[in-house]
Specification:
Length: 211
C-alpha cells in the first residue's frame, strides 16, 4: 500500500500534495515548533479538519517532509559522487560545490530545514539526525577526502561540516547578505560559488587528508 507521501508525489494536484508543499514551505520558514496546523491550513485555504483527514497530525506531516528531504539529498549526493568519480581533488571540489549550490539554491527550504534541525534550542527528534553521518560520509568521498565511506577520518568529517555549513548559511541568509552586497539573486549565486571555491579549493589542496 502506498504511503501518504507516495500518494502526494503521484498526484501533484491533489489536496495531499498541496498540504505537503505548504507544510514544507512553512517548516522551512518557522521550524517544527514555530509552525502550527492552523498556519498550514490557512496557507492551503482549507480548515484544520481537512488537513488532519489527509495527513494526520503535525508530526506526521513533519516526518513526511524530512523523509522527502532525506531521499532528495541522498539522490543528489549519489549523483554528484558519480559525476566526480576518478577526477582530481581540485575538480572534485569545484564540481561538488557547483552542483550542491545549484541544487540547494533551487530548493532553499532544504537549507532552512537542516539549519532549524541543527541549531534550534527546542529540537524535535527526527529521522534526519540518523542520516547526517551518512551524508557526511557520502560528501567526504565525493569530494575526494576519503577513499571509501567506511574510512572517514575526523578531520575529513570536520572539513565536510565546514563546507556544508558555509553553503547552508549562504543560502538561508541570502536576503540578509544580498542586501549587504546590493546585487541580484543571479549575481549572488555566482558570488557564493566563486567565494566558496576561492576559499575551499586552495585550502583542501594544500592540506590533503591522508587516507
Amino acid at each position: 500500500m502506498s504511503s501518504t507521501l507516495e500518494k502526494a508525489r503521484q498526484n501533484p494536484d491533489s489536496m495531499k500534495a498541496k498540504i505537503f508543499l505548504a507544510a514544507k514551505k512553512l517548516f522551512g520558514e518557522y521550524g517544527f515548533h514555530g509552525t502550527t496546523t492552523r498556519m498550514i491550513a490557512q496557507e492551503v485555504g482549507i480548515d484544520i479538519s481537512t488537513m488532519h483527514y489527509h495527513w494526520g497530525d503535525k508530526r506526521d506531516l513533519y516526518e513526511a517532509v524530512i523523509l522527502d528531504l532525506n531521499e532528495r539529498i541522498q539522490y543528489k549526493l549519489n549523483e554528484v559522487e558519480k559525476n566526480v568519480k576518478g577526477e582530481s581533488l581540485d575538480i572534485r571540489l569545484e564540481v561538488s560545490i557547483e552542483e550542491m549550490c545549484e541544487y540547494l539554491f533551487s530548493n532553499p527550504c532544504i537549507s532552512n530545514l537542516i539549519l532549524f534541525r541543527s541549531f534550534t534550542k527546542t529540537r524535535e527528534d527526527s529521522s534526519i539526525d540518523k542520516k547526517v553521518p551518512e551524508y557526511i560520509s557520502n560528501i567526504a568521498v565525493a569530494m575526494g577526502l576519503a577513499i571509501d565511506k567506511q574510512n572517514i577520518t575526523v578531520e575529513a568529517k570536520a572539513r565536510v561540516l565546514a563546507v556544508v555549513n558555509a553553503i547552508l548559511n549562504f543560502i538561508s541568509g541570502e536576503n540578509f547578505f544580498r542586501e549587504m552586497l546590493d546585487i541580484t539573486h543571479e549575481e549572488y549565486v555566482r558570488v557564493v560559488k566563486d567565494t566558496l571555491k576561492f576559499i575551499l579549493i586552495p585550502a583542501f589542496s594544500k592540506d590533503k587528508i591522508k587516507n
